[in-house]
Design a protein that fits this description.
370 residues, alpha/beta, Nucleotidyltransferase, domain 5, 2 domains, five-stranded mixed sheet, 13 helices
Length: 370
């Protein structure tokens, strides 16, 4: 019964394009209706060869990159769902109560004005209600704020690049949306998941409880910290350290190259950083259990810069007792991409975020978890 309904919703029509502009790459993903769930119509991840700020200030250059992506992949239309650069968005977890006769949005703004001692009139504010397991507790929301001037400037740049913005989103909501599609069928419940999103400067721990975002918090673990430690301990240039991590990785099980001594050394030097990561994850799991009557997540997913290192899955599985997997959008949705095209879509958070953005507005036909 699901497949005929799905096709009737948008026969032969692609959904809006998810667009994520990262520090190094422009990522695009477009889905279309499939037999029972969306399928990948087109996907691209292109290095922009400059800083993100310079690219956003240059609509002509962005238009060239978009044109290149459209030439390489069968994208349809020019409507995009996108998000502001993360450094232009301030996010915080807000506790609030809804007074009798007041709306929820007014209650959030009232509490926000008391919490944030700055002028909100020049800001664009939105919020995501957090999953509540205890009705007696105060309500919580993840609030996103951005300067109205920066929002308008970003929209103008995308318009100048020939794109029509259907909606603006935030990356944590997009990633939560993507994760809510993992391992879900007509009869299964939506799993509860933890995402470790490895960034170059910061990483983020995101808990998705069913289809609802429960938590999104930054941690200091990041690729730059790993490279800095290699430089301090081994006197290794950051560029060389990054090359070795991407080529040799952290998989010490292999016996190639004389016992893989390089991987052993990298793993040993970086072990304190991964121990700190383990502590942060365990703290998050304890917090989640306190909010869910002692329940834990079903699986940990990882994505981002560090997720590309060979052997990272095995190393992290040594750290945690929960199942752990790489977050690969092309393993969640059917596609017709070639091996070469797949190789151009590394396990970067930008590709995953672009997929989550592309899912905005896509109808959900599966049951929700309890």
């Amino acid at each position: 019964m699901f497949a005929p309904l799905w096709r009737a919703l948008a026969p032969g029509k692609a959904y809006d394009i998810g667009l994520h502009i990262g520090l190094e790459r422009v990522n695009l993903m477009q889905l279309q209706p499939g037999e029972s769930r969306p399928t990948v119509r087109a996907a691209a991840s292109i290095s922009h060869g400059t800083s993100r700020d310079d690219l956003i200030a240059n609509p002509a250059r962005l238009k060239q990159l978009i044109k290149r992506a459209f030439a390489e992949q069968p994208f349809q239309g020019s409507r995009v769902v996108t998000c502001l650069p993360s450094d232009q968005v301030k996010m915080l977890l807000l506790n609030y109560t809804v007074a009798e006769g007041a709306s929820e949005s007014d209650s959030v703004i009232r509490e926000l004005r008391e919490r944030v001692h700055e002028e909100l009139d020049g800001m664009v504010v939105d919020y995501i209600p957090v999953r509540q397991e205890h009705p007696s507790r105060p309500k919580e929301a993840i609030v996103a704020m951005a300067s109205r001037d920066k929002v308008l400037a970003y929209l103008d740049v995308l318009s100048g690049a020939g794109l029509q913005v259907a909606s603006l989103d935030v990356a944590p909501a997009a990633l939560a949306r993507l994760m809510s599609w993992i391992n879900v069928t007509e009869t299964s419940a939506v799993p509860n998941l933890l995402l470790i999103n490895f960034g170059s400067r910061n990483s983020y721990l995101t808990v998705v409880w069913g289809r609802r975002l429960m938590l999104d918090r930054p941690i200091e673990f990041a690729e730059q910290r790993l490279l800095a430690r290699l430089k301090n301990i081994l006197d290794m240039a950051e560029s060389e350290g990054k090359r070795l991590l991407l080529e040799r990785g952290l998989d010490t099980r292999s016996e190639r190259d004389g016992g893989n001594e390089i991987s052993h050394t990298l793993k040993e030097v970086l072990q304190p950083e991964f121990a700190a990561l383990k502590a942060e994850v365990n703290n998050t799991l304890v917090y989640t259990a306190s909010r869910t009557h002692g329940r834990s997540v079903d699986c940990i997913y990882v994505v981002g810069s560090v997720a590309r290192y060979p052997g990272i899955e095995h190393l992290l599985r040594e750290q945690f007792s929960l199942p752990l997997k790489l977050l690969d959008p092309c393993a969640i949705f059917e596609h017709h991409l070639t091996d070469k095209e797949l190789s151009s879509l590394p396990l970067r958070s930008g590709v995953a975020a672009a997929t989550g953005l592309a899912l905005r507005g896509v109808p959900v036909l599966w049951p929700t978890s309890t």
